[in-house]
Amino acid sequence: MHAAIPKPGPAGRILWAVIAVTAAFCLGVVALRRGEPINAIWLVAASIAVFAIGYRFYARFIDHAVLSMDRTRATPAVLRNDGLDYVPTDRWVVFGHHFAAIAGAGPLVGPVLAAQMGYLPGTLWILFGVVFAGAVQDFMILGLSLRRDGRSLGHMLREELGPVAGVVAMFGVLILMMIVLAVLALVVVKALTHSPWGTFTVACTIPIALLMGVYLRWLRPGRIFEVSIIGLVLLLASIAFGADVASSPSLAPLFDFDAKTLAWLLIGYGFCASVLPVWLLLAPRDYLSTFLKIGTIALLALAIFLSAPTLQMPAVTTFIDGSGPVFQGHLFPFLFITIACGAVSGWHSIIASGTTPKLLANEGDARLVGYGGMLVEAFVAIMALIAATSLHPGVYFAMNAPTALIGNTVQHAAIVISQWGFVVTPDELLQTAKNIGETSILSRAGGAPTLAVGMAQLLHNVLPGGGMMAFWYHYAILFEALFILTTVDAGTRVGRFMIQEIAGLIHKPLQATESWTGNLLATAICVGLWGYFLYQGAIDPLGGINTLWPLFGIANQMLAAIALMLATVVVVKRKRERYVWVPGIPAIWLIACTLAAGWEKLVGPISFTAAAAKYADAAKKDALLAPATSMEEMQRIVGNNHVDMALTALFMLLIVTMLGFSLRALMQAWRTPGATTREEPYVALAGIAAGAP
Amino acid sequence: MKVSLSDAVRALRSGWRRAVQTARLSCGIPDYAAYVQHLREYHPDRVVPSYEAFFRERQAARYKGGGGRCC
pTM higher than 0.80, yes or no? Predict the structure, then answer.
């Protein structure tokens, strides 16, 4: 059985030829024009054309040849329709739901950090990474789950690679989640450090969410849209009032915290929020952040189209040699782990095998939802890259380089950054801070503040007005903080369930999710795990993001490699070996990137080992190295780096183990003459009435 | 081809309905009308819950682990 791939008609051929020429021309402008700055619209046009070609040709090839999605076959939603979890749903509705679930802070942060290498490396990796790896992963995992009753990634790994592989992957996912939560919480800490305005508005989200929760529970149950409008109005009011708080000598100190205090506040908040009933805090904030996220992404797109900014960052900077201040390491492999979400994100394999496969009414819709949804996320990443590279490069580096390199004063920062070749004056740095209503913009790594300044400038170009830039800046910070806090809260709950599941393997009663002992214990462990890394980031000599983001990137790409290995094994088990390269090549690429990055983080000049040794040597000589202010802190930095070393080694071991399991399954399947995959039997769609139980 | 006013109104209504359905589903609340219809057709013996009860049940179910959300 081999489904023919539909070919375009004569008019279609002309259209696609035009799109292909447009793509080639725009990419040519983006890649080859040197010396004079280009307009962001070239980048936007190149992206849209590349995505269209990828969707029309490569995704369709995967649809028909590799996955052989069958329009006549009944999907889990049709077969098991229960009106709740399994519901055949309109494809565009599923698309919206799926996109809302995959889009988060990741695609906004990675590209901003990667902008230190210029706009070209990041753009090329996002465009080609998504077409050949990221969207392939999302689409293929969705396709596999569709054929297996909508089963989860973990379940499919157990079935296709063996029970041990399933448990190994489960541990990997748990550690990845802890790192994700820590690094995202650190993004919030970095954005709010000594920012009374930002801290006040973010703090306001708590009473606003509680109010919404009560409204939804008792006053007008279930009226999500209504309550979200009320929440939005209150949020905007809190941003406006935040300006008065920041300028008031009596109120401002109440919301002015350093990184360590903010880290502790977030840890405490994370614990409380995830043991409270969901309807009170988590759910209402989740609704608000979902709508705000989609609205803000649309607003960003509109601002870029209307203001058509010029990219001020060079196409390629000298920092591709590994000497960059934002993150250390050469273009290969560090660009490919810094931009994870947006190009390829392992986390999506969990969403694509979660609720989405239970909603698709037809296998033919999987391409739009799986592949198409990821293309839109890649477009969000491109927009984040545009926002960062349309900033003055001097401002960009002042915001993203750690204090250890640029110091604490605008004078010193301007000198250092100008020496890097990005001429900037102390006045420009001061003026930027003043425009956005903050006292300083120095060393605010983490993507959110940079994106917020970029967005504020873009929106200010479209809607000028006195003081509006400060409003837009704090709006952007609030929007990122809001959905990061939702992720932290929901993630802590999911992590708690995973910990209880793992604990249940050892001692069965711990698995009971209703038990308060199990609940509080697992929540404390979960918060303790991500809290440890968050606090480590808050006291890190290089500012935290510099250290934690590579760990996050390695872990996320490791999960993507695992998902693509599963897809590779299934392709061979279905005896479609000639297509093994479709998931196989991106899998090998990601294994190479994660192992290479892991290795460099273990041995060599930019490794955790070297950082630990540097502080240990100084401690031996009784010398204090900044930012440590005591011997105790010196020892803690050494200890943290040892933990990071162990974690990196663990990730490498995990991926090699999974590679071993995959190769074994691959060889077995290759030798076996018939198909050995575990798909559910074929049921014709025409044979059952829509909506049958 | 003439498009009548009632056709346009109908198209607008269905577009709005789909937008509402997407927004609710993104928050983990499936289509209530579809659920009621499903119950009537296949489980006539079961009590049809009010929208409020349905909403509460789905709200609690969304955060019972599994899946999570993306970074």
Answer: yes
